[in-house]
Amino acid sequence: MKHGKNYRNALTKYDPAKSYDVAKACQLVKDLHFVKFDETVELSVSLNLEKNQTVRDTLVFPHQFTGEKRVLVFCKEDRVQEALDAGATYAGSTEYLDKVKGGWLDFDVAVATPDMMKDVGRLGMVLGRKGLMPNPKTGTVTPNIAAAVAELKKGRTEFRADKTGVVHIPVGKVSMDSKDTAENVAAFLDELDRKKPADAKTDFIRSVSISSSMGPGVWVSFKEGDEE
Q: How far apart are the first and last CA of the chain?
């Protein structure tokens, strides 16, 4: 892939083959920023997973960087007001099932009470393609509507390993203080370590890199003594 002059110039400002500690790597991403908009800072973590293993969960970062999420709650009519009082943007059953079936997706995350999943499951072709299907593993299928909505409004973020064993997750914005971004990265790596499969290999994390949306990647040292 051919990169532009600004990208190539950024590569001259650091050693692309070197690994940097989290704090330095986050500062480098900020220093290497060359576009006019506020880019998202993205972390990529390559995991050593067996074919039958996966990693999927959610976390709330210590420093938020996204706008307030629009939450849709699929629930029976007697719980609609509870969902709205908790901060849901939309709540209901048949009305929203029909709207989503028709292609309406004007929300960022969906929550469902367990008694709604039989009907919500039929929307798999619509919600699944967009990564919006409620799932017990991510806390979006739950009888506790208020707690789920509260965490989502705080910015709870889902992460999962793809088919190649790589987790891609946004961890901040270039405009943020690099110390805050570094704390988000550290929080995520700690959470990832807690969620590793019980039979995971010793070298569970293969590599970690961080970059802005348009900028070059910076290798992150994730073990003590890793930094070159």
A: 27
